[in-house]
Amino acid sequence: MTGNLSLCFQRPSARLISPxxxxxxxxxxxxxxxxxxxxxxVDRFGFSANNITYxxxxxxxxxxxxxxxxxxxxNETSPKTHGLVPxxxxxxxxxxxxxxxxxxxxxxxxxxxxxxxxxPVSPSDVNKHAFYVPRPHLPADRRPYNQIxxxxxxxxxxxxxxxxxxxMLYRPLFWTAYWFEDWIFSLGYRGATAFLISSASAxxxxxxxxxxxxxxxxxxxxxxxxxxxxKRNVAFTKGLSLYDEVVQYDSFPSALGREKWVYVDxxxxxxxxxxxxxxxxxxxxxxxxxxxxxGMTTMTPTSDKASTFDWGATxxxxxxxxxxxxxxxxxxxVRKHQLSLSxxxxxxxxxxxxxxxxxxxxxxxxxxxxxxxxxxxxxxxxSSGFSPDVGYIWSxxxxxxxxxxxxx
Length: 408
Ligand SMILES: NC(=O)c1ccc[n+]([C@@H]2O[C@H](COP(=O)([O-])OP(=O)(O)OC[C@H]3O[C@@H](n4cnc5c(N)ncnc54)[C@H](OP(=O)(O)O)[C@@H]3O)[C@@H](O)[C@H]2O)c1
Fold this sequence. Notes:
Blueprint: E1 4-10, E2 22-27, E3 37-47, H1 49-56, E4 82-83, E5 87-96, E6 106-111, E7 116-120, E8 130-132, H2 143-146, E9 147-150, H3 161-186, E10 194-198, H4 203-217, E11 224-229, H5 234-239, E12 245-248, E13 259-265, H6 270-279, E14 286-293, E15 318-319, E16 323-325, H7 328-338, H8 341-358, E17 364-369, H9 371-384, E18 390-395
Parallel strand pairs: 10-11, 10-13, 11-12, 13-14, 14-16, 17-18
Antiparallel strand pairs: 1-2, 1-4, 3-5, 3-7, 3-18, 5-6, 6-9, 8-9, 15-16
Helix pairs in contact: 3-4
Protein name: DUF2855 family protein
InterPro entries: DUF2855
Pfam family, one: DUF2855
């Protein structure tokens, strides 16, 4: 193993030049591993607005995304001044002092944008499917982020470069969409006859539309699905054919009919939300039966907070008069009492298999390899935003690793 390289960002609290300035930090790996510790070679990872949200909320007290992977201690960086934005990716265990984990194992999890990641692993919290990174400094409900999945026993593992790439892009977003749709369907869609989804070009949003449309095609629901998006993303969003109608933010609300609406807010844009809620105050606009906050794509790396929405609430109770929060772990806990674990696994397996076929044409995959190239790709996104038709797959290695058997 050689030294490590990591893509680091300044913590806003460090009050350095600018929190969106990325730096590649070079550090050493420990000469000797403490007990129950592994070194993961981070082969490659996906990057989307979800990661920008992690970055923007890196120091936000409820989320603390910068406290999952400490930044390296170097001349330029330290855990106090810098943060590592968590990323979902594939890696290979290349060294282990843990008796139940061996070198060579392929894993998937909540990794860091670096070449290597050194993490402790709980001595007892290890099973055939996964093991866990103990993070006692973070709240217990972060457990899903601490899980590292063992691909050899993962029913969702889709082998091959394409399968792995699509997994990195969709897995973190699709399950939010899936369990959100399951939750609102369990409430009879609250009597809605139509869904209005903001940031409709975002993967979280269009996966939600996809799942509602599937429900409809099975004859279990009868609702319209309308996407709200920015002017530049209208063509892409229409091209997905996942929405019945796509409406530009600027022309909202002209194209809307008189329905019972569920509003799914993926944009987290206060100005847009104000317009949406004002529109539905008029009885002629139909009725807003439910509004749920699901994302914050409006956030930029330097956002203090894109929305006044109170993310700090721990329960999915109504937020003020309008927005409600969907909290996936809470709903999954309810489902675990209603359905057997094997039923949940079967449902997930079916949904995932369908997604892995259906999602192939949705976005074009773009691979970027090498530290400077990844830094440049990040800088482009920080200054110009995401192209929704691109699935970004990055690696700090000069050539993208292929997961299984990737060379050191
Ligand atoms: N609640 C949860 O547990 C959970 C789980 C997963 C994801 N999420 C959240 O869902 C959101 C969507 O994530 P994603 O990864 O699905 O997004 P994505 O596919 O990367 O979508 C990016 C979209 O963001 C919008 N956008 C807003 N400001 C932009 C700008 N300055 N430049 C370019 N695009 C901009 C655009 O959509 P429009 O033009 O259509 O607005 C763009 O297409 C994130 O906030 C993420 O954190 C939440």
